[in-house]
TrEMBL record:
This is GntR family transcriptional regulator. It holds the Pfam family GntR. The keyword Amino-acid biosynthesis does not apply. GO terms for molecular function: DNA binding; DNA-binding transcription factor activity. Keywords: DNA-binding, Transcription, Transcription regulation. Coiled coil: none annotated. It comes from Marivita cryptomonadis. InterPro entries: GntR_C, TF_FadR/GntR_C, Tscrpt_reg_HTH_GntR, WH-like_DNA-bd_sf, WH_DNA-bd_sf. Residues 17-84 form the HTH gntR-type domain. The keyword Transcription regulation applies. Signal peptide: none annotated.
Length: 236
């Protein structure tokens, strides 16, 4: 089994465990669907009551959300929805534009048939989520597509950094996105898979660069109106 496959299996297991946690899935979805604004306090007692689960399950869910960079945990102050500043958002995308085109080049040189098949299956799932208007799920899956490419490149340290940047991007895109069209659009990801299949390193690098520049250019760093809704209203 290749390293890429082992990692894919590991992350599937991790995903399978964590998707059983209703606090993780419910809050993640509410954040990515823009129902929970940045900075919203996430009180453990409210979450336990809303989801009908123990405080232990609430804490496990919140820790996984913090690992995904969607939630900030502070000692004695509890959890709140992460609140990336425009500057941080810009830096995250600048870092991705530096790292990911090179990573796509390397991935194109290494991609085998199993890798290409895994990417195509993943892209289908992503497009199905978009077609069903499951915007939160579609956003998470498109981020995962970028992580898979970094894993195929097999540069572990860079892949870890990209994974972190992609997690932070999901929230940034949810907060600052301006276009009504799809985020990582179908065409871009399919063209990248085609380039990987042909082992065309130059094309993969260029496609990834233009894809990220396009994503970045669709972000508008203005803060939306604050809401007077309660946590329960926002989660419902
Ligand atoms: Zn993309």
């Amino acid at each position: 089994m290749s390293i890429t496959q082992q990692e894919a299996n590991f992350s599937r297991r991790f995903d399978a465990d964590i998707v059983q946690n209703p606090v993780f899935t419910g809050v993640e979805r509410a954040i990515l669907e823009q129902r929970l604004p940045p900075g919203t306090r996430l009180a453990e007692t409210d979450l336990a009551e809303f989801y009908g689960v123990s405080r232990t399950i609430v804490r496990t869910g919140l820790q996984a959300l913090a690992h995904s960079q969607l939630v900030t945990l502070r000692p004695n102050r509890g959890a709140s929805v992460a609140n990336p500043s425009p500057r941080e958002a810009r830096e995250v995308f600048e870092a991705r534009e530096l790292l990911e085109p090179r990573s796509a080049r390397e991935a194109a040189l290494r991609a085998n048939r199993a890798d290409v098949r895994a990417l195509r299956l993943h892209a289908q799932e992503e497009h199905a989520a978009m077609a069903n208007n499951e915007s939160g799920r579609a956003l998470r899956l498109s981020g995962r597509f970028h992580v898979m490419i970094a894993q195929i490149a097999n540069q572990r340290t860079i892949a870890e950094i990209i994974e972190n940047l992609v997690s932070r991007s999901s929230l940034i895109i949810a907060l600052y996105w301006t276009r009504s069209s799809t985020r990582c659009d179908e065409g871009c990801h399919n063209a990248l898979i085609d380039a990987l299949e042909r082992n065309d390193a130059g094309e993969a690098e260029e496609l990834m660069r233009s894809h990220l520049v396009e994503l970045h250019s669709a972000l508008r760093f203005e803060v939306g109106p604050s809401s007077n809704l309660t946590l329960k209203d926002m989660l419902s």
